[in-house]
TrEMBL record:
TM spans (from-to): 208-235
Record's protein name: (raccoon dog) hypothetical protein
Record bears the keyword Nucleotide-binding: no
GO terms under biological process: urea transport; water transport
Position of the signal peptide: 1-18
Record keyword Transmembrane present: yes
Domain of life of the native organism: Eukaryota
Length: 288
């Protein structure tokens, strides 16, 4: 059996019958940040319904959820024949039109509760917390899954007040055996407005300031790199054009002298007379 101080810390050990008690928020020792935007962690009704006398037979505990509205503050969770309601979160619009059954678990006798001395054991921490706590709104996919067939413990609405009730059901008869009172209103957290987020650098850590500075300077460096690439591309294009023009000019200058030289050679060969020595021989023959 768990130590007495542990049960008192969890609020699980109560005096009197279950009908005079209310569900309570889980101790901050075991559930930090509770409630959240969409969940509420509650203590399970341990040693509550069977504190006065041992219960024989098979029993289950149903957890009902109801939005805190004046019109449904004392809503019933059973019909005229004492059968528990089976309303779902979809049928009640998330608890706004009436209570819905969010969870069901077996009644664990006080003597079978796991010892809290092993809560520091990582391998058993989840098992122990599941034995002592129940988290309302823990299933984030059941509403969108058309093939889901179990109890839909759907996420709660943010900034909304809810009330909770435990019901003890005799599984042999299917009737309500006992039940707690509705809990006091428990409000889920409100989302933090964007304007309320503190963005002042003086309240940031050194690492956040460095990361913010790097991210802020990155677009500038990318822009400089892009401009440099464009300038280099233009310079390469201009250099290529200049080399092309220089090469063409050299080809033209080399081609023109050769053409002029050929013309002069042809012109000279056409107008040039016989060689001088041959002309002198011809004159001497005429004189003879």
């Amino acid at each position: 059996m768990p130590p007495l101080w542990a049960l008192l810390a969890l609020g699980g050990l109560r005096l009197g019958v279950g009908v005079n008690l209310q569900p309570q928020l889980a101790s901050v020792t075991f559930a930090t940040n509770n409630p959240t935007l969409t969940t509420v962690a509650l203590e399970k009704p341990l040693c509550m319904f069977d504190s006065a006398a041992t219960l024989n037979g098979t029993y289950e505990i149903y957890l009902y959820v109801l939005v805190n509205l004046a019109s449904s503050r004392n809503a019933s969770v059973q019909d005229g024949a004492r059968a528990p309601l089976s309303s779902t979160v979809q049928q009640t619009e998330g608890g706004r039109t009436g209570p819905y059954k969010a969870a069901a678990f077996g009644l664990i006798p006080c003597s079978d509760l796991p010892s809290l001395d092993a809560v520091g054991d990582v391998a058993r921490a989840s098992e122990i917390l599941n034995a002592y706590l129940v988290r309302v709104g823990a299933n984030g996919t059941c509403q969108s899954d058309p093939n889901f067939g179990g109890l839909c413990n759907a996420p709660l609405s943010a900034a909304t007040e809810y009330r909770f009730k435990y019901v003890l059901v005799n599984m042999s008869t299917g009737l309500v055996q006992d039940q707690t009172l509705w809990s006091d209103p428990i409000r889920t957290n409100r989302p933090t407005p964007y304007v309320a987020i503190d963005t002042w650098p003086g309240r940031r850590s050194g690492g956040m300031i460095v990361i913010t500075s790097i991210l802020g300077s990155l677009p500038f460096f990318l822009l400089v790199a892009f401009a440099g690439a464009v300038v280099l591309s233009l310079l390469d294009t201009g250099s290529s054009d200049q080399e092309t023009r220089t090469h063409d000019s050299q080809i033209t200058q080399e081609a023109v002298p050769r053409s002029l030289g050929t013309s002069e050679a042809v012109y000279t060969s056409v107008n040039r007379g016989p060689p001088l020595d041959r002309a002198e021989v011809y004159t001497s023959k005429l004189q003879d």
